[in-house]
Amino acid sequence: MTDPTSTATAPAPEAPPDRGTQRRTSEVAVPLGVMAAVVVALVLVYAVGQRATDLVTQSIVTGLLLGGVYALVSVGLTLIFGVLGIVNFAQGAMLTMAMFLVYEMTTSGGLPVYVATLLAVPIMFLFGVVVQAALLNKLTLAGSHEGPLLVTLGLSLLIINVLLMIFGGRPLRVPGSVDGSVEVFGAVASYERLIAFGGALLVAVALLLLLRRTSFGMSIRAVSANAEGASLVGVDVRRIYALTFGIGAACVAVAGGLMAPFLSLTPTVGEQFTILAFVIVVLGGLGSVTGALLGGLVIGLVQTVGALYFPGTGSLILVFAVFVLVLFFRPQGILGAPQ
Amino acid sequence: MTLLQVDQLTKSFSGLRAVSDVDVTVTDGEFLGIIGPNGAGKTTLFSLLAGQLPPTSGRVVFDGQDITGWPADKVAGAGLVRTFQLMRPFESMSVLENVAVAAHHRHRSRRAARRHALEVIERVRLAEYVHAPSGSLPTAGLKRLELARALALEPRLLLLDEVLAGLVPAERAPIIELLREIHADGVTVMFVEHIMAAVMALSERLLVMAEGQELALGDPQEVIRDPRVVEAYLGEDYA
Is A212 helix (H, G, I), strand (E, B) or coil? Predict the structure, then answer.
């Protein structure tokens, strides 16, 4: 299990060179390399890609904006994995649940969509806390891996079918929020997508700061590194587990609310995000929050720029191609520690 | 004054009694050495006391409170803290952060916890490594970090599980000196150790365990001359 924030403290000058320092070097070098590779790939698309420049720019802008929200969904997933060791199959279903919460509050409650999102966050947080405390803590503490996996899979089916029962399978739309768009380098970016991107990054950065700069975050990281050791220095591991799952759920609440204005809602809308989030989390390095951020942006780009060549769902093929290549060449992901 | 009272403590693993009907009373301020051959149940006893394992039967009373079956974090919070033979720092975190996690239990504010952690780090003489990633410390440093994390909780009773194991003799002396200081500061210590010189130098009383049971308990000099102890543990060379 790796540290969810990949610590950034500098080693003491007296400390001899060691594997800690080496890891630190790769922590900077590998992400920079990935970014360089992405830039080179985009330049190539412009230069020899045989696609109109405007079209490419539009794809890049759309991809980055989308990638930001992917990143937030993935941050929740990677945090839950990093701290609890749980592969949360319900992440996509919780995202859908958050979207429908927002839908209900905007249509029946008449609230603006972003206000509804703010209200959905504590609700989903509580939901996550209760799920972990009531259903998962016992299994997690017993060290079971397949137990929590099955519970979250069951939970996702439950959520989807309850939503189906209440709302039916018809696509629904959240009433319009902020109309209009701006031009970025000749590409169109709607306000809704810009807000989604900005909001997602803001929350992700806030989460990173929480993990690195607060005592609560330090306890989370301690539990992530060694739960037994943490309990022996007085950390209530059950409480940290429940709150961490709550935070993971709160992340999808934000992501769900931010995406609701430009997606048509069906009870299965979140499923594609589960898959994408898994790809992103593996790409970024299991348990690494910064890795998930970077991975989200990369996958967003791969999907939209790839769609220039593989229209429709074909771009998912590219996403999975990237996934397979990563598994092959760097199975620990961009920011994962080598095993 | 009695700080820890252990009554008929037993732990069975599928029929095998790793700890069997152990009765120990530890007085406030004492330094109790514990020795015994491998598999005698010393580490299991510590795990039971620290709340990591639930006992099969028996009772643990610490500082007047029945703490039997309490979870580990609550036991640590009450002031009964253990260390590990194999050091397990929070590897991805710095030395300071490792200790600060523990210090948070006593100090609510982040700043106070860090200040306290720095004091403890100073005390175990790890100051030069304060910002180093804990995973990069040499063995002796990890031992000191393990002690620092325990001390940051301001324990009343410290369970030390082979803090000297894996150290070369030159590295042992300063740690033994440190243990002396900690004890002199009023911390009660239970000390599992194989290095006899250290056990004899530090212990005020000595408990010998074998096959999960108490074999002998009393004055260290007398206990190691006890024929049963000589036979069961120390071997003929010592006799």
Answer: helix
B239, part of any domain: no
Most distant pair of Cα atoms in chain A: their distance: 65
- Please write the tens of the pLDDT for every residue from A252-267: 999 999 999 989 999 9
CA of B118 vs chain A CAs: smallest distance (Å) = 15
User: Distance, in angstroms, between A230 CA and closest chain B CA?
Assistant: 8
Query: Does B27 reside within a domain?
Result: yes
Could you give the number of structural domains in chain B? 1
Alpha helices in B50-158 (DSSP H): 72-78, 95-103, 110-123, 139-152
Chain centroid to CA A13: 36
The per-residue pLDDT for range B223-236, each reduced to its tens digit, is 988 888 888 765 65
Q: What is the pTM of this model?
A: 0.86
Write the ipTM. Answer: 0.85
CATH number at B199 reads: 3.40.50.300
Tell me the C-alpha distance between A103 and A120, whole Å. 10
Closest CA to A253 of A151, A143, A119: A119
Which residues from chain A sit within 8 angstroms of residue B92, using beta carbons? 2-3, 6-7, 221, 224-225, 337
User: Is residue A50 within a helix (H) or strand (E), and if so which, with residue range?
Assistant: none
Q: For residue B82, what are the domain limits?
A: 2-234
SS3 annotation, B27-43: ECCCEEEEECCCCCCHH
B221 lies in some domain = yes
* Token digits of residue A101: 């919460």
B62/B79 Cα distance (integer angstroms): 9
